[in-house]
Amino acid sequence: METRIEGTGPVLVLIPGLGCDDRLWLPVGQRLAREFRVVYPSVWGRGSLDRAAEELAEALDRIEAPQAFVAGLSMGGYITFELLRRRPDRIAAAALVDTTAFGDTPERRAKRDQVLDLIRRGGFEQVLEAFAASVLAPYHRDGSLRNLVVEMGRAVGPEAFAADVAAIRDRGSYEDVLEQADLPLLFAAGEDDDLTPPAVAERMSRQARQARQAVIPRAGHLSPLENPEATARVLGEFFGRGERL
Questions:
Q1: Mean pLDDT per segment of 10 residues, for the chain of length 245 residues?
Q2: Which single residue of 61, 109, 120, 223 could bond 190 by disulfide (Cβ 3.0 to 4.6 Å)?
């Protein structure tokens, strides 16, 4: 797994969501690199969330980081949950951003199957247009942010995008991780996130042992892009309170 690194200090891994690359977290990472050694892992296209988590653990070995702070958004949150389940010793504290520990409903699984079918039939551009509209708050759906979401999806490519959609569809529940994880967890969501709204973050926080919760103002499902200043502040305050690595 390739990684991009900037800054010095405690290691902070920023894991992107479906259809996104380093550019999702870059506006936040550049702010946090003043205090943290920020790692951007290329997790997409594995077709397996647990495989992505294992490869990420191996990447931490290569940069000699026995433990790290971890923030994962959406699919990146699922990979974070997999790390918490399989390699909890590698994480000092984790932020679950615009994500959920709860499995897909049958209706949501059916929609993912429709996306896979459309990609197979050559409709990847149509998928990206709908994807950009679903992940951004209404007031961010026109202009540069929409264009960037589509560009990131194209960079990830249809094969990797489809592999990740299938992995997300089949992931199941992470409620066992919520109940067993014995380390600080932050649950954050954009205030206008229609996919995993703040109510989902609140529900997760009630099941966790050491939980904090935050709402990112003026943001939808892609908080790091839609309000990087607020997202960086929330993460910096949370990880800044943690024990230094």
A1: 94 98 98 97 96 96 95 98 96 98 96 98 98 97 96 98 98 96 97 98 96 98 98 97 50
A2: 223
d(CA 85, CA 24): 25
| Residues ≥6 apart with Cβ < 8 Å to 198 | 189, 190, 191, 213, 215
Residue listed under structure tokens 């459309």:
118
Domains of the chain by start residue, with CATH:
3-103+172-241 (3.40.50.1820), 106-165 (no CATH)
For the chain, give the number of residues. 245
Query: What would the two tokens of residue 209 be?
Result: 């042992």
Do strands 185-190 and 211-216 pair parallel, antiparallel, or not at all (unpaired)? parallel
CB 48 within 8 A of CB 75: no
**Six token digits for residue 87:** 């390699």
Pairing mode, strands 11-15 and 37-41: parallel
The Cα 151–Cα 125 span in angstroms is 10
Phi, psi of 121 (to 5 degrees): -90, 10
Which residue from 196, 200, 189 is spatially nearest to 227, judged by alpha carbons? 189
